[in-house]
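My current task is to audit a protein record that another person submitted. Alongside the sequence sits a line of tokens, each denoting a local backbone shape. Please read both lines and tell me whether the tokens look consistent with the sequence. Do not assume that whoever made the record got everything right. Thanks in advance; the entry in question is below.
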Amino acid sequence: MKIPGGPLASMACVFFLLASCSTPPDKSPNEPTRPNMLVYVVDALRPDSLGCYGNQEVETNAVDALARDGVLFENAFAQSSWTRPSMATILTGLYPGAHGVLGREHRLSPHLTLLPEILRRYGYRTGFITTNPNVGSVFGFDQGWDMFQELYERRDEGRVRSTELITRSDAVTDAAVAWIDRVTQPFFLVILAVDPHWPYEPLEPFDRYVPEASGDRERTKGLYQGEVAANDDAFGQLLAYLNDRNLYDDTTIVFTSDHGEEFWEHGERGHGRTLYEESIRVPLVIRSLHAGPMTGGRRMDQPVQSVDIVPTLLTLAGLPLPSPLDGKSIVTPASEASPVFARLLHDSHNLAAIRDYPWKLIWDRSTEEMLLFNLEEDPGEKTPVTNRHKDVAARLADQLFEHAARNLDRRESLGESGGSETVDEETLPDNVRETLKALGYVQ
């Protein structure tokens, strides 16, 4: 579905609907109170690429307007710096060490309970549209959905081009609209949009952020920003559609990312190599008129995590929280901030991290090296202070070890789950392998 009038018209529509929907409509006592739920995940999206997080260069009108009408979390963090473990956490409410989806060979176990399985018990129709095969059926992510759509099929014969298997966000919006049009309510829809994931190749008019005369790094960042703007436009079309169907106020909306993206802050470009802030910090905007509400353009600075999304959605739907869950509902701010944990097991990178502001400890599990940073004094994580603050490093290391032990116990208590489920890359379907190659996951 395309909104008539192009990007500016669709954004104007979004501005109007978000400005006019700050209070819940009158409802009769007999109407169901459970909201529809939309979780929109943008692959590899850094918060500082959005206007609502301070970017003054890129037009991100849709998510900016949603932030003005909902709640923006200033300090949200993913549990890993690559897609598969992070999305497993978003759908299970478990840390990576507990659900066991850590490395490239791991898949979700059918013994785990995913959020759509819980919601189906309460009458929800569930749908998932994924554009990244790391979150596909071959890795177990098709569990519990009424509709599971994988948008990375080959379109042409012959040599595979880099963008051939990558579905852009406007096509994702079309697929989402088509599904919502034919399902009963309440619905739960998760979307994983792959742009602005590498390769960055924005189409007109979104290529306008690429400087005419610049070095490779400036050009790369400009291409990335163009895809951010293109994704925002497609997201705006989806919000406008919900408004046209009078579904906007009845839909709890979560906008986030699975991980960040590095632009040479620590000598790397991309993701899945480190656990520095640029790799794990993500945007999180929630708008809901239910069990809260979460509206009014508030900005929250409490640290929150992707693992908190499952309990938060269940709370907003007025549903009980199952056990076990590692995350906590963030509908009501916690009186005391909890540490943030992250884990990375990708190719040769085997890292764990704990962030307890202002301190952050990164543990290289291969070399046993530990790096302690004071984020208040050194937000760019350039100068480790491990030797100067050995007591702090020891305390955080103990917490990190305890966290790892709890995750292992949790995984064992869940039965045959997580790491016992593996996939041989050589047996992957051709379209999955070729798409992973186009996205840079397979050499």
In short: Confidence is low (pLDDT under 50) at residues 1-32, 416-420. Residues 35-438 form a domain with the Alkaline Phosphatase, subunit A fold (CATH 3.40.720.10).
